[in-house]
Design brief:
Blueprint: H1 2-15, H2 17-28, H3 35-47, H4 53-87, H5 94-107, H6 109-114, H7 121-131, H8 136-161, H9 167-173, H10 175-204
């Protein structure tokens, strides 16, 4: 991770938040890139005054939404065979696609939101949603919510702690642990919101 951090900091210095935008977009499209790490590095740089935290959050949000929607269109238009044929170059296997499709069919929008915090699911999110022909309006709404939460968590955390020399390395080494805490919380909130909406709608009927 230290090698990526050094390389990305150089890209950030040369190209600004455009480097973050491209990294997150390509990861969301299915590329094997560390989007979370890029956001953490950029937000930590913002804490040190190298870039604007607003620009960091905006670039990450737009990149994640754009990448997922491009992936959705590819999956919708070309389907599973093309994804598997070219996805193998990026580590996308048939078993991984099958698992993601099964989860997407059973959980839909909730998975689109939560998948943002899970490696591999995040990269397959749009591709699988398009392949399984999830309605685009449902996907877009869930995708926007998931991207906002994902970007909000990592930019806020890294920006708040970025000035602390001892805190940032801890974040780097515990990305998975933090996500493991955040994801169950998101699932609980989403389930409660769904249950409340279902009960409210049934009461009105």
């Amino acid at each position: 991770m230290s090698g990526f951090l050094a390389g990305f900091e150089q890209l950030l210095a040369e190209y600004g938040v455009a480097a973050l935008f491209v990294t997150v977009t390509l990861e969301s499209l299915g590329g094997p890139l560390p989007g979370e790490s890029a956001i953490v590095a950029a937000a930590a740089g913002a804490a040190l005054g190298k870039v604007s935290i607003v620009h960091v959050a905006l670039a990450a949000f737009l990149g994640s939404v754009l990448g997922d929607n491009i992936g959705y269109l590819i999956g919708r238009k070309f389907g599973r065979p093309v994804i598997l044929r070219y996805g193998r170059r990026f580590g996308i296997t048939e078993a991984a696609v099958a698992r993601a499709e099964d989860i997407m069919r059973r959980r839909g929008p909730i998975i689109v939101v939560v998948a943002r915090f899970v490696v591999l699911l995040r990269q397959l999110n749009g591709l699988v949603a398009g392949t399984s022909r999830m309605p685009w309006t449902h996907f877009l709404a869930a995708n926007v919510v998931g991207a906002a939460l994902w970007v909000g968590v990592w930019t806020t955390l890294a920006y708040r702690l970025g000035r602390e020399a001892d805190a940032l390395p801890w974040i780097w080494h515990h990305l998975g642990l933090i996500a493991a805490v955040v994801v169950p919380g998101l699932i609980l909130v989403l389930l409660l919101a769904w249950a409340f909406g279902w009960a409210f709608g049934r009461g009105r009927r």
